[in-house]
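Below is how a single chain appears once it has passed through the pipeline. First comes the sequence as given, then the structure the pipeline wrote out for it. We keep one example in the README because the format questions we get most often are answered faster by looking than by reading.
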Amino acid sequence: MSVHKEVKKVTTHQLQEMKRRGEKIAMLTAYDYTMAKIIDHAGIDVILVGDSASNVMAGHETTLPITLNEMIYHASSVVRAVDRALVVVDLPFGSYQGNSKEALTSAIKIMKESGAHAVKMEGGREIKDSIERILTAGIPVMGHLGLTPQSIYKFGTYTVRAREEQEAARLLEDAKLLEEFGCFAIVLEKIPATLAGKVAKNLTIPVIGIGAGGGVDGQVLVTHDMLGMTHEFSPRFLRRYLNLYDSMNNAFQQYIKDVKSRDFPSENEQY
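Resulting structure:
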């Protein structure tokens, strides 16, 4: 008789415990059931249903066009696959900026309709009201500072943020504020490693980096990038663990060749 082993779910509290113990947090993105199932089964701590789905899944140039309903569609697909990981969903552009009532409505809609465990929002002091309002509903919030892709048109570039002293000081201050507002963790994107390490040391909540060096409490990458499915994007912080683009391309070409040459299906592959 096989005994079904109870899977221990990752919680926001556990992530804070991991930081306390000095255990690094591993986080990856997922936007669909099949991929999320594999990632979760591998033992990932956090799955981010990122608004990067706008680029990766929908082919948009920026993360701005993706809608709240599209994010919910991706998030519910992921949640159905996951047994263990904490699932965090990006609040998409326009669903929370400048209007804390709308922010709360958006967050509740995501949680209710997708079954996810937390939301993520870009920005510091300027989204204080939205964060606090969402937290009153008991919804955990993950912050996001540094390069904030939803503000791409404000910055006009995807280069490293917070190199100047003034911006660096503001970022550290914003990180402390996000902790004070009640965020359970923060993502730091594309900022100097020394600054990121300093932020992580100054906070009791976990700091997860992407292009923010090794001095933080965990790392996140876009799954399609680390698997080498995308190949037009090669930032310095990206480690490709596979080159799936070529492997998949070869498989597809072989299939086409086999169909054209009548090699597929063979006698054993038919009824």
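The longest strand covers residues 141-146.

See the next section for the split statistics.
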